[in-house]
Amino acid sequence: MLRKQDYYYDLPEELIAQHPLEKRDNSRLLVLPEEKSEPDHDTFANISKWLKKGDCLVINNTRVLPARLLGSKRGSNIACEILLLKRVEGDVWECLVRPGRRLQPGHHVDFIDGRLSAEIIEIVNGGNRLVKFAYQGIWEEILDEAGMMPLPPYIHEQLADKERYQTVYARQDGSAAAPTAGLHFTPELMDEIKSIGVSIAELTLHVGLGTFRPVKAENILDHEMHSEYYELNREAVDMINASRSENGRVIAVGTTSCRVLEAVTTENEGELKPQSGWTNIFIYPGYKFKAIDALITNFHLPESTLLMLVSALGGHERIMKAYQQAIENKYRFFSFGDAMLIFPLKHQSIESRIEHD
After folding, report:
1. CB 312 within 8 A of CB 350
2. Judging by beta carbons within 10 Å of its beta carbon (0-12, 13-18, 19+), is residue 247 exposed, middle or buried?
3. Tens digit of pLDDT for each residue in 257-283?
4. Does domain 4-64+163-342 have CATH number 3.40.1780.10?
5. CATH 3.40.1780.10 residue ranges in the chain?
6. pLDDT tens digit string along 230-253?
7. CATH assignment of 68-146?
8. Prediction pTM value
């Protein structure tokens, strides 16, 4: 199962969701239960019936920056795009820029009538640029006014409401993409989940654009995984440890939450501890899960590292079959699409552990 081609499937373009549903939890939910190979079909509003008292949902509270800036090169009519990737220090950011050949060190780009400007400072790895921004006022307010949501390349429509590319619990600014499994939750649904005795632990992983980077290597072991910054605090750790001690299930909301928990958990470890850092963990079939018991996630792109991750948890053949059934039943795919709840089969054997961190 280490060949990229084993994770390919043919998706009709009309099944790529171009916009969010009017009500977040009206999304459909394909469930892979632990006791059978065949899926159940439900709606996300009914997610509570698949949970039980003592479980712990782990959510990613990162907030997406309106990181796509459209402006013009100073002294010309050349249209330019700058995409914020990560803050280096102060007002200096590492960015993607277009057109790259026209934006060299020393060049300036102006936005919103000159109230925000950017100077190209340096060319760094991969052709990215270090960019220093100048503005008057509060950075967050200027960015909210000037910036657009950095929607994935397969979404061709702009959002009328930027908040629809945020989870309802987003609070920590820093992501270049949304943790999309969380887009299905509403405040009312979260209250309902808590009312049945399920705890909700928050961690932070700032999603990078590497999440959309395709796997080019034919042997997936040759793929170089991107790194992302995470934080896991004491409150979340206490909730997760309490659930484990009471034989509750740890259910990750999204592959981002899953990657953090698996990255920080070691074999035969006792209690989880608060920590922060960077992870480039790559999970694919053969990996032995140590931290999570189930995963809520969206449908992922063909031949992507995220499809490899869910195949590791749910079983490759079982996942690929479920994707075909989702296509036949016209589920909506990708960021604004429908969801899955994946439990590993009870009899599923995952013997070997392969981890990159």
Report:
1. yes
2. exposed
3. 999 999 999 866 667 999 999 999 999
4. yes
5. 4-64+163-342
6. 999 999 999 999 999 999 999 999
7. 2.40.10.240
8. 0.90
